[in-house]
Amino acid sequence: MIFGKNKEGKALDILGKQERDQSYWARVKRRYLKNRLAKWSLRVLIVIFLIALFSDFIANEKPLYCQIEGKTYFPVLKEYAVDLGWAKREAKFYQTPWQDHDYEKVIMPLIPYSHYTQDTKNIHFVSPFGDQDVPSKRYWHWLGTDQFGRDVLAGMIRGTRVAMLIGVLSMFIATLIGLFLGSLAGFFGDTRFRVSRIRFWLNLIGIILGYFYAIQSRSYTFNVANENGTFGTEVLKSLFIFFVIILLCNFLSKAFERISFFAKKITIPLDLIIMRLIEIVNAIPALFLLLAAVTILEKPSIISVMVIIGLLRWTTIARFIRSELLRVRSLEFIEAANAMGYSDWRIIIRHAIPNAIAPVLITIAFGVASAILIEAFLSFLGIGLKNDEITWGLLLSFARESTMSWWLAIFPGLAIFVTVTIFNLIGDGLTEALDSKLQ
Amino acid sequence: MFKYTVKRILYFFPTLIAISFLAFGLSKCTPGDPANRCEDSSSLAAINNCEVEYQRWAKLFGLTGPTFYFELTSKAYPDTLYKIIQKDQRENWQALISHYGNWEQISNYKNAIQETQLKLFEIPDSIGKSDVKKIKKELNFLPILSKDKVITSRLNKILQAYNNTPTLRDYLDKEISNLETSYQNIKEKAKPSQLYIPTIHWYGFDNQYHNWVTNFMIGDFGTSYKTSRPVASEIRDAIFWTFAMMMLSIFVAYFAAIPLGVFSAKNKGLRFDKITTVGLFMLYSLPSFWIATMLVVFFTTPEYGAWTDIFPSIGLGDLPSDAPFWNRFWETASHLILPVFCISYNSLAFISRQMRGGMIEVIQQDYIRTAKAKGLGKSQVIWKHAFRNSLFPIITLFANVFPAALAGSVVIEVIFNIPGMGKLTLASILEQNYPVVFAILMLAAVMTMVGMLVADILYAMTDPRISFDKK
Predict the structure, then answer these.
(1) pTM for the full model?
(2) Whether the predicted interface score ipTM is above 0.95
(3) A146 and A70 share a domain?
């Protein structure tokens, strides 16, 4: 009998496996992995991600581990602690350059240069095959150097981090905005968003008053805070004031709704409004706006470039999620959820969006590619990033200054090309895997 | 159909207005003061001259008058603040109001500064020359200072210099004490409560935005900060090259892409199709500024051997303008080969991919099978029946290609040093020549929107199912 039981369990196992395999995402995954190009793109992407994540451990002028006068140090790890404010750098490490210490034992990273290390013996564009003045093959500049003797490979590894950061975070911002507005437009359409008259007007007034008290009246506080470096907390305070005012307006409108005149419902054509907004954002040539906006900022940084790209790129996501929700909202399970008495927001977040999210992944993949391209483009033109930051676009632009350094023209461009292509291939693979016609 | 077109055109205008708000708002956030070009304050005449100059520049650049039709501020701000034309001073008084909220006292203080400045010029040269100079210098700082600590220290310096030469008392007695008391009044009679009472000032139609937009509509895009020439004429010079390159590249792209797309759709799944699909995909992903840089590095210089020096160097050639027309034509044409290639290959790949997709879908339709069953020849089926129907998405793509080529040409023009719109934009941004930047932004937006409008109407014409009501 024990034998039989075992078999039963096996059968259950197989059944359970099949059940799991029939789930939507399992099918998508299986179909995606069938596409060899897409599978390999995903693997390369993971490698790129790891390079971006561990760039400090791959290319650094500091040793990973070293022993001086019997004491052990982990300088690269320590640097993270210093950046976070948990520890202080040892005096001797910032008095003498890293390469001048007498190490008893030392493990250097794979590339013993940081992106900012200026190798004074190899300045003025030294070719990978040229005469490099290095102590050993270990210190060879595999992809050459730039004008100041900075290692191009180290710069490219650092650039991976910037590119990934821009690509991923700007699309994160874009996805948040796109999901919110797109699902509003798709779920409510032009006719289903109805609020009472008083709530509408009070909210409108609330927004104006909120702007006035949160921003206009506080301009002096902002000025002072800007000098003291407490700008962030003041912004939070302003946001708080704004939300309190909006909240008050909604409480008031609740009270007024008892009067039937005020309680009369009006319809807000959310879809129309949001589609117009999308049209406006699409009509603005993103590149020109980005160029103009970045130069207005007095201190542009990676974050501001990310935010601007995110603010311009949400429209495709919003359109996708809108059309998906238009489809989903007429399905039976939404009706069922409605009949159960769930609130609109709960239905949107818990039921509608999870069923409409798949096509958004495609847009995100393509969006990351274009965000990386835009950033490379901007830094190629020399706009937007701080002087001490190095990016692929910036490295590529050095090739314009010195046409004999072919390594500056080829390798950074290749990095941009490979990354962009990989995201495009992943997008293509996803499109195929999610295409319901092919099922 | 007609109803749809009218509706679509009506929707065009609110969008355009919203974009003009954005462009104008951004242009108001720009740093720097373009009208401030005069630093001379040695004599009364020079100062007056400077003010006249400032007003002239400000008027030329459209920086005078209220900013918008209305303004939402607090009760503390007067509605006449815009009459102070100097940007730095206006912003400074605003900062003072946002702190103390009592415009009456602040304006007294402002007048006291002016009166003292005027009075200083009445003092004969013989009396306390160095001290007068000192007071003048400190006084010039006062209208652009808002922090209490700094103002007090400047005022103290003025007092010191004033007490240093007793004879100055005959001239400046009233003014200096006025200055001091008026500043003390600001602090003592502060009314911060005024800052919390919202008010709306209505300015009417004579405002900067209104003038900018109405001028824009009649083709007056403002005045360049850099050259003081009309922006329209600067753009006219630049747009020729961009337009020429764009037309050439669109022509090249369509000319090559359509046959390529049709053939690979016809041979779907065969080797030709597979190779072109992969090749076009690669081409589509290649960033044009990388290819352009590589082409410039490898094919325009003899550094890698004489055989790689195929194309002329960047720029448009340097033949004098009196050279024979055809010589100049060929010189320019040879310089345009690489840039046009760089702009067009991206859209080439895109269009032929679309063409292939559209064609494949059409080929599967029933009427194609009917046509084949009728016994029509293969090429006749493809070119007469399928091709026409697969053209619709391509026609509408035209709307996207236009702005894309404009954006794509920015970096190509910079790399190949062609004096077009892209190079003008970048140069204006780097020179902080904002009227040009925002005029180009507006123009590009209008062009994009017209393209989208035409595409939508074309869509509606080809597909009668499209309408606003049913989505």
Answers:
(1) 0.79
(2) no
(3) no
